[in-house]
Write a structure and sequence with these properties.
heterodimer; A: 192 residues; alpha+beta; Protein Transport Mog1p, Chain A; B: Serine Threonine Protein Phosphatase 5, Tetratricopeptide repeat; 67% helix; elongated
C-alpha cells in the first residue's frame, strides 16, 4: 500500500496550516451567532469563523477537533436520517453512528464505546470509533453530542491511532471542558 | 493537403494499437503498458483488502468462484486469475480491475433474484478483463492526447476538445461489447438469458425509488433504458426468448441470504428506508424462522422520521415470539415504552435485554434508563 512519507506530509500540513483562513486558535472562540463558546490551547490553529470550525496543532492529518451543529429534521453526514428534538441521547448517538458508518472515508468502522456523557453539563452521548481512512491509515474518533432546541451540538476529536490519538487526547478533553452552549433564547438576545 | 498529410503521419506514428486479442491460455503475455495497469490494480486491490470494506463470507466467495468458473473455461483463468470479492456497500455497483479482481457491492447482490442474474453481471465484468478494456481505453486516451498534441500544433485549440472526449471511463462501444460477449457467455453456460433484462429492470426500479441518478456501474454505460432494450433485442434476435435455461434461484438465495440481511442493515444506516424494507422483506421470506427479519422491520419503523412506534412494537414482539433469547428486540421495546412513559414495562424490557446481553456496548444508557424508571 502506498504511504505518504512523513516529511512531505508534514510540509504539506505546515503549508495548509499557514494557508488562508487559518488563524492562531489560542483563547476563547465565539462564533458570530453566539451559539457557543470554546477555548483552544496555545499552539493550535483554527479554520473557520462561523458555527462550524476545525482546529489542529500539527495539521488535519495528525489531529483535529471539529465543532459542528446539525439542525433537527435535516440529514446528518453520510445518512439521510435526521435527529429530532424528542430523541433520547442514545437515539441521537445512533444517528451519528450511522452518519459516520455511511461515510465513504470511514472504512471498517467499529464502535469502541457508546455511553451517556455530558457536554456543557447537558445530557448527551460519547461515541468512540475506530476505522481506516481512504489511505488505509488506522484512525480513531471521539464524538460528544447533545441536543438543545433545534440543534445537535457535536464536538469531535480525530487522530491516527498510532502515537497521535493518545498524545492529544488530554488536550481535547481540556477543550471539551471549556465548551459552553448558549441557550437559544440567550444566543438570539446576544445577537440582537 | 499539407495538413492532411501531417495528420496522417501523426496518426500512423503516434497511435498505439487499441485492437488486442482477448486474453486466454498459458501463453498470454501482458504488454508493457498493460503491466503498469495491472500493478496499479494490485495496489488498489491491496487498499480494498486492508480497508475493511470487503465482506467476509468464505462460503459466499466459494460460490461466486464456482459461478465464475461456470462462465469462463480454465484456459481463460490461466490468463486472468479472476477472483470475485463482495464489498460491504448498499449502493448498486460492480466493477473490475484489469487483473481480474471483480468487486460486487452487497447492494447489487441483494437486488438479484437468481444465479442467472449474477452470471449476467459477472460475465459482463469478466469481459472487461478478458477483452483488455482497461489498456484499450488507456491507449485510446493516449491516442487522443497524441492526436490533440498534433492537432494543437496545426490547428490550435481543436485537439484539446478531442482529448477530453476520451476521458469518461469505458466507452459506450466497450460497454456494449461487454454486454454482447457477456450474454453469449451466459447462454453458453446454460443460464436463462431472459433473466438479464429483468435484473436491469430491478435496478432501474430501485434507482427510481431512491430518486438517484445512475450510479457508477451504469454511469459510463449506455443509459439503462437503452441497455434493457439492447438485451431484449439481442435475446429476440438470437431466438433466446423462448429458450429456458437455468436460473438456480435456490442455490443463489441460500448463499446470499446473510448478505441480504447485512445489506438491509447498511441501507437502514444510510437512511434508505425503502431499500431497507425491501431487503428486510426478502430476508424474512428467505428465513421466516429468524427473529432478525421482524426485528429489522421494527427498527425501520422505529427509526423513520415519523417513528411508527405501534408497528415497531408489533414487529419486535414477533421477533421475541420467534426467539425469546434474542436480546435486541427487548432493548428496542424498552426504548419505545420508556419514551411513552410506561416506565415499569420499559424497565422490565431493559432488564431482560441486559440479562441476555451482559456485554452490551450500550449498557451505560440502559442502566441509566433502569435507574430512572425505579
Amino acid at each position: 500500500m502506498r504511504r505518504t512519507p512523513l516529511g512531505p506530509a508534514l510540509l504539506c500540513v505546515a503549508a495548509c496550516a499557514s494557508g488562508p483562513g487559518w488563524v492562531p486558535a489560542e483563547g476563547t472562540f465565539e462564533p458570530p451567532s453566539r451559539r457557543y463558546a470554546i477555548q483552544f490551547p496555545r499552539g493550535w490553529m483554527r479554520l473557520g469563523d462561523r458555527d462550524t470550525v476545525v482546529a489542529s496543532r500539527d495539521g488535519l492529518f495528525l489531529q483535529r477537533i471539529d465543532v459542528f451543529q446539525h439542525e433537527t429534521g435535516k440529514p446528518v453526514g453520510g445518512t439521510r436520517k435526521a435527529v429530532s428534538a424528542r430523541m433520547l441521547p442514545q437515539e441521537v448517538a445512533e444517528v451519528v453512528h450511522d452518519a459516520l458508518a455511511s461515510s465513504p472515508g470511514m472504512q471498517g468502522m467499529t464502535v469502541l464505546e457508546n455511553a451517556p456523557a455530558s457536554l456543557d453539563g447537558r445530557p448527551g452521548f460519547k461515541l468512540v470509533v475506530a476505522y481506516k481512512d481512504l489511505d488505509g491509515l488506522r484512525m480513531r474518533s471521539i464524538v460528544y453530542g447533545t441536543l438543545l432546541g433545534e440543534a445537535l451540538y457535536e464536538l469531535s476529536y480525530s487522530a491516527p491511532e498510532r502515537h497521535y490519538f493518545d498524545r492529544d487526547l488530554q488536550a481535547f478533553e481540556q477543550v471539551r471542558s471549556t465548551f459552553r452552549i448558549a441557550p437559544p433564547a440567550l444566543a438570539r438576545a446576544k445577537n440582537d | 493537403m499539407r495538413t492532411s498529410l501531417a495528420l496522417a503521419g501523426l496518426l500512423a506514428t503516434a497511435c498505439a494499437q487499441t485492437r488486442l486479442a482477448p486474453a486466454s491460455g498459458n501463453a498470454f503475455r501482458l504488454e508493457e503498458d498493460e503491466r503498469g495497469l495491472w500493478r496499479q490494480a494490485e495496489e488498489a486491490e491491496a487498499r480494498f483488502e486492508s480497508g475493511g470494506l470487503v465482506y467476509a463470507d468464505a462460503a459466499l466467495e466459494a460460490y461466486l468462484d464456482e459461478v465464475a468458473h461456470r462462465i469462463q473455461p480454465a484456459s481463460v483463468f490461466a490468463a486472468i486469475p479472476f477472483r470475485i470479492r463482495v464489498v460491504r456497500n448498499p449502493y448498486l455497483n460492480a466493477f473490475t480491475l484489469p487483473n481480474g479482481r471483480i468487486y460486487l457491492h452487497t447492494g447489487m447482490l441483494a437486488r438479484m433474484d437468481n444465479e442467472a442474474q449474477l452470471a449476467t453481471v459477472l460475465a459482463h465484468e469478466m469481459t472487461h478483463a478478458t477483452h483488455r478494456h482497461a489498456v484499450r481505453e488507456w491507449r485510446d486516451l493516449q491516442n487522443h492526447v497524441a492526436l490533440a498534441a498534433g492537432l494543437n500544433s496545426i490547428l490550435p485549440g481543436i485537439g484539446t476538445l478531442a482529448a477530453f472526449s476520451g476521458v469518461r471511463g469505458y466507452s459506450r462501444e466497450l460497454e456494449t461489447e461487454a454486454d454482447d460477449e457477456g450474454l453469449r457467455l451466459v447462454v453458453n453456460a446454460g443460464y436463462d438469458a431472459r433473466e438479464a433484462p429483468k435484473l436491469f429492470a430491478h435496478l432501474q426500479e430501485q434507482l427510481r425509488e431512491e430518486k438517484q441518478s445512475e450510479p457508477f456501474f451504469f454511469g459510463t454505460h449506455p443509459a439503462l433504458d437503452a441497455r434493457i432494450e439492447n438485451y431484449r433485442a439481442r435475446i429476440e434476435a438470437q431466438g433466446l426468448g423462448k429458450k429456458a435455461g437455468a436460473t438456480n434461484a435456490e442455490a443463489f438465495l441460500s448463499h446470499t441470504r446473510a448478505a441480504v440481511y447485512d445489506n438491509a442493515v447498511l441501507d437502514l444506516r444510510a437512511g434508505r428506508f425503502v431499500a431497507a424494507e425491501r431487503g428486510a422483506r426478502k430476508f424474512a421470506a428467505l428465513d421466516p424462522g429468524s427473529p432478525r427479519g421482524p426485528y429489522l422491520f421494527g427498527e425501520i419503523a422505529r427509526q423513520r422520521s415519523d417513528g411508527e412506534w405501534d408497528a415497531a412494537l408489533d414487529d419486535y414482539r414477533r421477533a421475541v415470539a420467534l426467539d425469546a433469547r434474542y436480546p435486541d428486540p427487548y432493548r428496542a421495546i424498552g426504548l419505545i415504552l420508556y419514551k411513552r412513559d410506561e416506565k415499569s414495562a420499559a424497565r422490565e424490557a431493559f432488564e431482560k435485554y441486559l440479562s441476555l446481553s451482559p456485554a452490551a456496548t450500550d449498557r451505560g444508557y440502559i442502566e441509566a434508563y433502569i435507574g430512572s424508571s425505579k
